[in-house]
Design goal:
The structure is a single chain. This protein has 590 residues and is of the alpha+beta class. It is 35% helix and 20% strand. The protein has 17 helices and 20 strands. The chain has helices at 35-50, 82-94, 96-103, 112-127, 141-159, 164-171, 176-191, 252-261, 288-302, 348-357, 359-370, 383-387, 444-453, 472-482, 488-494, 507-528, 571-580; strands at 2-3, 57-61, 64-69, 72-76, 194-198, 211-215, 221-228, 267-273, 280-281, 284-285, 309-316, 328-335, 399-402, 409-419, 424-430, 435-441, 536-539, 542-549, 552-560, 563-568. The strands form five sheets. A six-stranded mixed sheet has the order 5-6-7-8-11-12, sandwiched between helices. It has a five-stranded antiparallel sheet with strand order 1-13-14-15-16, with no helix packed on it. Strands 17-18-19-20 form a four-stranded antiparallel sheet. Strand 19 and strand 20 form a beta hairpin. Helix 2 (82-94) packs across helix 5 (141-159), helix 10 (348-357) packs across helix 11 and helix 10 (348-357) crosses helix 14. The protein is globular and about 80 Å long. The termini are far apart. Residues 26-30 and 529-540 have low confidence and may be disordered.
Length: 590
């Protein structure tokens, strides 16, 4: 397939211009590209890579790649990707004298940043087989730690300012850990679309939070605190200022009290990192549930001032296993906020309302999860289109020539859909007389980009919900998005069997009621298949029963004291419901 312009030679090799050959209109011209849809798709792709902060400002001048950061312009002939720039950028910020002084020390005495840089350069030597060419390699802990710091420095300088005192703290091995975690938190918030206001760090007379953050979504202002547990032998800490590694929650409440002791005129965001090794119980880190229980206890018995805060307990463990895939996990807790992130079974409609109410926290969590998706391109375009040497993905509304024997098919692409299981594109191509449906295979790289950016790669309106529904809430959000255009009269007709006075509901509540019913029907249908076997897990007060379809477990039904308490896709999710009901899942399986 080839994208062709109206005045280009026709790909059929007739010698004529495209507009006088296969591009000749015999009737009305086909649909024109929608510039608003194209812009929305491109901006979605850019934001998925760069976040919601200030876009990267970059351009090419002759052989030089130029990048503007704040009020400073940087340039080089060697930068092919944005990470190339970041590696040089952080070296410039640390300074030649500092780098030279650190390099003269024995390796074990060097600053963590210097150790990371050396390890990163060794990793580059191992993975880059053709110097000067773009190479893709798996992300490791040391890449995440070093480039994550460089990216946070860039985001802070480009969106706010980079205070000299923060740089001094970062270069001081005794103060490095605190500055490092504050930088990462600032990066999470900037990528989530928050505008930061830095405090006067020279003011040593008054207590104040690290910085203030204003949400671009809600306009709410928050005071931000960031604390990380010190561990002997890690991030520059010694026996003089570090603690034992085997007590990840030892500083949870002291850090929380320190954060709450600082005055805050607005709502609080408190980040506390447990700085521990990565151990998972199913899909949950082993420290997460004890941390939530300890925070609940603090709220009930120790929160004497009735303070309120959104607390994010994290474990950014990039530095711990530097040659393995980077590990980072987190949980959120609403101190004094009973409708935010509380254990227990809730209706999907209540969960949806809570997510809308606390959308800022949700966007922070999304940014935290995506932080290591560093931009690759300078202009926000897709890596395949910037580096792949091809014309890129098909775009809806553009004209293409599709070879088909001697004649070929020329027309405007009107629809593109992906058959993920078959790794195929289903393409509808229209000219002035007909519409043809074509199939094309997808490469692994093309499929990976579709999974990352969705239908936006084809110029479609970006999908706002998950492509794969992993639980009932994902399914509810999918139904909400799919049915948002239904008129009120139609919704009333479809909800006539609901036993409540639906006429009094507003449009959104009516839509939520309808979509909740769809979710209930879908899960009931999944449970209705007769089980082909009856593997069960039993314990005092509760029972799990496997629901089979085509010989495979599709769902687990949860029964507590003889009553159905819901269904989950994994046993781990079931155990969370059981724990929230005050029962213990630690029983022998039958």
């Amino acid at each position: 397939m080839a994208k062709v312009g109206r005045n280009q030679p026709c790909p059929c090799k007739s010698g004529k211009k495209y507009k006088h050959c296969h591009g000749r209109y015999g009737g009305f011209p086909g649909p024109l590209p929608n510039p608003q849809l194209a812009f929305n798709a491109a901006e979605f792709i850019r934001q998925q890579q760069q976040g919601k902060g200030r876009p990267i400002v970059a351009f090419k001048s002759a052989q030089h790649q130029m990048v503007a950061v704040g009020n400073t312009v940087h340039w080089s002939t060697k930068w092919k990707t944005f990470p190339d720039f970041l590696i040089d950028y952080i070296k410039g910020k640390l300074g030649k004298e500092w780098v030279t002084a650190e390099a003269a020390k024995a390796l074990e005495q060097q600053h963590p940043l210097m150790q990371w840089a050396l390890r990163l350069f060794e990793y580059q030597k191992e993975t880059i087989k053709n110097p000067g060419q773009i190479t893709s390699a798996p992300m490791t802990g040391v890449v995440a730690a070093y480039l994550g710091t460089a990216y946070a420095l860039y985001l802070l300088e480009h969106n706010v300012e980079l205070q000299e005192r923060l740089l001094k703290r970062l270069k001081d091995i005794g103060q490095f850990q605190g500055a490092y975690y504050e930088l990462l938190v600032a990066g999470f918030l900037i990528k989530a679309g928050f505008k930061l206001t830095l405090e006067d760090e020279t003011d040593g007379q008054n207590k104040h939070c690290e910085f203030a953050a204003i949400s671009s979504t809600t306009g709410k202002r928050y005071w931000v605190e960031a604390k990380m547990r010190s561990v002997t032998g890690l991030l520059g800490k010694t026996t003089a200022d570090g603690g034992a590694d085997d007590k990840p929650l030892a500083r949870l409440i002291p850090h929380l009290n320190d954060a709450l002791a600082k005055p805050a005129a607005d709502d609080r965001l408190i980040f506390i990192d447990v700085n521990t090794s990565t151990k998972m119980i199913g899909a949950t880190p082993d420290w997460a549930e004890p941390a939530m229980r300890r925070l609940e206890q603090f709220e009930k018995k120790e929160n004497k001032t009735d303070a309120k805060a959104m607390i994010f307990v994290t474990n950014v463990a990039y530095h711990r296993e530097q040659d393995k895939p980077p590990a980072a996990s987190g949980v959120a807790f609403g101190l004094g906020l009973p409708d935010f992130q509380r254990p227990g079974v809730v209706r999907v409609t209540d969960a949806y309302r809570a997510r809308k109410k606390y959308v800022d926290a949700y966007e922070i969590a999304q940014s935290f999860q995506r932080y290591l998706n560093f931009p690759t391109t300078f202009d926000g375009s897709l890596p395949s289109e910037a580096f792949g040497g091809t014309q890129g993905h098909l775009k809806i509304g553009e004209q293409y020539f599709f070879p088909d024997g001697d004649k070929g098919i020329a027309g405007t692409v009107t629809t593109v859909n992906v058959d993920e299981n078959k790794k195929e594109l289903l393409v509808a191509v229209s000219d002035d007389t007909q519409t043809v449906l074509l199939k094309y295979p997808m490469t692994d790289d093309e499929l990976a980009e579709w999974r990352e950016f969705g239908d936006a790669i084809f110029g479609k309106e970006p999908r706002r919900t998950k492509a794969h529904c992993e639980n009932e809430y994902d399914l509810f959000e999918f139904f909400m998005d799919a049915n948002k255009g239904l008129p009120r009269d139609e919704l009333l007709k479809r909800c006539t069997m609901v036993g409540q006075d639906i006429e009094k509901l507003n449009d959104e509540d009516l839509l939520m009621l309808y979509c909740e019913a769809l979710v209930s029907s879908a899960t009931a249908l999944a449970r209705s298949a007769p089980p082909q076997s009856s593997r069960q897990i039993q314990g005092s007060g509760w029972l799990l029963k496997a629901v089979f379809s085509s010989g495979e477990i599709q769902l687990w039904d949860i029964f507590i004291d003889g009553q159905w308490a819901g269904s989950k896709r994994t046993e781990k999710q079931c155990y969370e419901v059981i724990r929230n009901a005050g029962l213990s899942p630690n029983v022998a399986r039958q």
